[in-house]
Amino acid sequence: MMSGNDEDPGGGAGEFMSVWDAIRSRRNVRAFADRPVDPAHLDLILEAARRSPSSQNWQPWDFVLVTGRERLVELAKVWQGAGHVAGSAATIALIAPAADNQYQRAQFDLGQATMSIMLAAAGLGIGSCHSGVGDKQLARELLSLPQDRECSFLISLGYPADRPLTPISKPARKPFDEVVHRERW
Amino acid sequence: MMSGNDEDPGGGAGEFMSVWDAIRSRRNVRAFADRPVDPAHLDLILEAARRSPSSQNWQPWDFVLVTGRERLVELAKVWQGAGHVAGSAATIALIAPAADNQYQRAQFDLGQATMSIMLAAAGLGIGSCHSGVGDKQLARELLSLPQDRECSFLISLGYPADRPLTPISKPARKPFDEVVHRERW
């Protein structure tokens, strides 16, 4: 556990993949091995989230790390697509301002924080999967959120049940030359 | 330049920092050295963008890579905070659907793509800075965008004019223990 309030957790860097390998290895992992993730690694992933950039550095987020099985199983019920949370080693709940305009404004920055989390995790060989939150009230109760905050997304974490994360050579994406334009459209 | 439409650009991985170093080294760089970025590295950064995850894999983006000085100087006029684009070695324009509802929905995913771009760049020692777009019409004209697309953000790229990217030990962020909660709020 990190004790200092702005200390660099430091150690562990040597265990990370290169950025390039992490970017190519990250994939949605929805079935997790029954194997815990080192709490120090979870803190490194949370530190990556904390360091994310945001509009005018407003940092519109909080992160709730959930590792207790009972709460994970309940959290998985906040949306039909959140089933993978139940069997995760840990799930990070992304908390945003509840006010509509702030909630909207926060979306881009929450996307940045999500990618930081997922790439830091991938860099440690830890799989991740993102889920929306349909039942905001249930999430609020399970996480004891104050009225001015809302659970925006869940990111489940854990070692893949199937195969380790390794670079994917042909990802399911539009072709490079279709989405990349040179100088102008 | 990449020629294959879904080929893995492959090479260059050995030049990337570890994920952890890239996450800690990324900072907003607004003044760039007068030094070009290897086109192969720009393609790796664009490939990182292409691989970003998105809601139901809808990939609501296009990327316009601008390296011509004249167009960069003009692009810098789309917003008061876009001045750094003028002196960048290259700038990636993030293009989103123009329809209001789709544009809103795309924000989270554009945030994910932005972070992929910035971390891939940082992993190569390349600085970056994000800018909003105030004058959407000017951006549309400069980039020859079709009517159903809109320039949402600009990400300038280049080697820092001041000092190389190295890990920042105490980033200007809220304290870890303030934004990270355990099991519940």
User: What's the CATH class of the domain at 60-161 in chain A, please?
Assistant: Alpha Beta
Helix content of chain A: 25-40%
Look at the structure and name the CATH superfamily of the domain at 60-161 in chain A: NADH Oxidase
Helix count from the secondary structure assignment of chain A: 6
Ends apart, CA distance between termini of chain A = 49 Å
What's the count of strands of chain A? Answer: 5
The ordered string of helix (H) and strand (E) elements of chain A is HHEHEHEHEHE
In the CATH hierarchy, the third-tier topology of the domain at 60-161 in chain A is known as NADH Oxidase
The CATH architecture of the domain at 60-161 in chain A can be named as: 3-Layer(aba) Sandwich
Question: In angstroms, what is the radius of gyration of chain A?
Answer: 17 Å
Shape of chain A: globular
Sheet/helix structural class of chain A: alpha+beta
Oligomer: homodimer
The strands making up the biggest β-sheet of chain A line up spatially as 1-2-4-3
Uncertain parts of chain A: 1-8
Query: What fraction of residues of chain A sit in β-strands?
Result: 15-25%
Largest interface: A-B, 81 and 81 residues
Largest sheet of chain A: 4 strands, antiparallel
Please outline the helices and strands.
The structure is a homodimer of 185-residue chains.
Chain A (H helix, E strand, L loop, with lengths): L18 H7 L13 H12 L11 E5 L2 H7 L14 E8 L2 H24 L3 E6 L3 H8 L5 E10 L17 H4 E3 L3
Helix pairs in contact in A: 1-4, 2-4
